[in-house]
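User: Sequence for CDC20/Fizzy WD40 domain-containing protein below. Tokens please.
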Amino acid sequence: MDTTQRRKSGINLPASMSGTSLRLETFSSSPSINKLSSPLKSMSPRTISNLSASSSPSKSMSSCSDRFIPCRSSSRLHTFGLIEKASPVKEGGGGGSEAYSRLLKTELFGTDFGCFDSVAGNFKGGSPMSSPSKNMLRFKTEQHSSVSNSPFSPSILGQDGGLSGEAATPPKPPRKVPKTPHKVLDAPALQDDFYLNLVDWSSQNVLAVGLGTCVYLWSASNSRVTKLCDLGPNDSVCSVQWTREGSYISVGTNLGQIQVWDGTQCKRVRTMGGHQTRTGVLAWSSRILSSGSRDRNILQHDLRVPSDYISKLVGHKSEVCGLKWSHDDRELASGGNDNQLLVWNQHSQQPVLKLTEHTAAVKAITWSPHQNGLLASGGGTADRCIRFWNTASGNQINSVDTGSQVCNLAWSKNVNEIVSTHGYSQNQIMVWKYPSMAKVATLTGHSLRVLYLATSPDGQTIVTGAGDETLRFWNVFPSVKTPAPVKDTGLWSLSRTLIR
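Assistant: Structure tokens for CDC20/Fizzy WD40 domain-containing protein:
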């Protein structure tokens, strides 16, 4: 194409380009437009911007394009106040404000941007190729799938900024507790009486249950049921309690007697009197058996002496319904229908502590196996609170309103958690973390108030009993070696077994 032809066409072309090196294609509106190929189709913006006007004329086809100009509004520097201007002076002088500005830029735009000195207008320890403009003019696909790819990730602030490790560590998910019992036993004639204690689990994995006038033993290892004793038509069972070794069991009766039986041979060893009426609660230490009665007295029994009891503790003004020895056998806690919680010394005939903050009967009592002198107690319907005490100082540490009558408390020996069973009005079972008292789980299933509670020897399972004449086994605590969540047992968990 000569000069005349270029002038006629109205297009100014470089002298080195011939008329055949430029092709103009007319695109029609037909569907075949998708089949047309363009030399720019597979070229990135970076490739386009690198094209120079002095392309080699020897190529069969040359492509020209204007330079690539990105949209600077996407940087939104004005939003974060990162436009290069003098920053306000913060505490600690100008040096601190500049360090803060560099740290903030590094967190938002990367380490290359953080190397820029906003005061001097140059780059520290880098070449012009590491300028922030190189990053800002490059289109970037934001990664939302990973926290570490986010420009706002606290990588620098978490490591070098002095923040605590807890802020950078994701919170641990709560432990899952199965919502259904893995076994249900029918327990006919299990009494619905708040002041009785009719269920206990021995260290040899045998469950004792008082049903009417009889005591039955259920072996958790083979599900074998054995009838221990029958008190006859004129008496009934009011309490059962295993020794710590799990070989002998004590039985409190409605007539005020305490019987001691050999659990392996089903043979009665001893019968002791002293109470005027029913004995609703029993507690063993390593050598002493304590019994509480409706006659308001606590008797201390020693099987090594021939007398019925060796001492009498007088302090309650109404029926004694809660008794627990501390793990070191130094203190005995007692609760009564007079709303009092008393703490007795092993050598004293008078209570060393009188705790009167409860406003209802105190049946639920448990000592912490993790901290000496830490006692928890629960109040009845008019109180509904779980209270924690330091028996060394006599001070109340904490109080939590549960919303229901507190019937039983048990402290886990595997983890620092507490399980409580409740009556009016929700009849629920609750697992709590200590000392935060955050709820781990709330279990329901009993149709009447959950009056009885015992813990398995391994500390993972609890059994609960209620006036609905059922015993339900729940996996609520982890094991000592593997604190992983226990596995739900599925549909077969609702199968029932008759205990007698």
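The domain at 183-498 is CATH 2.130.10.10 (Methylamine Dehydrogenase; Chain H).
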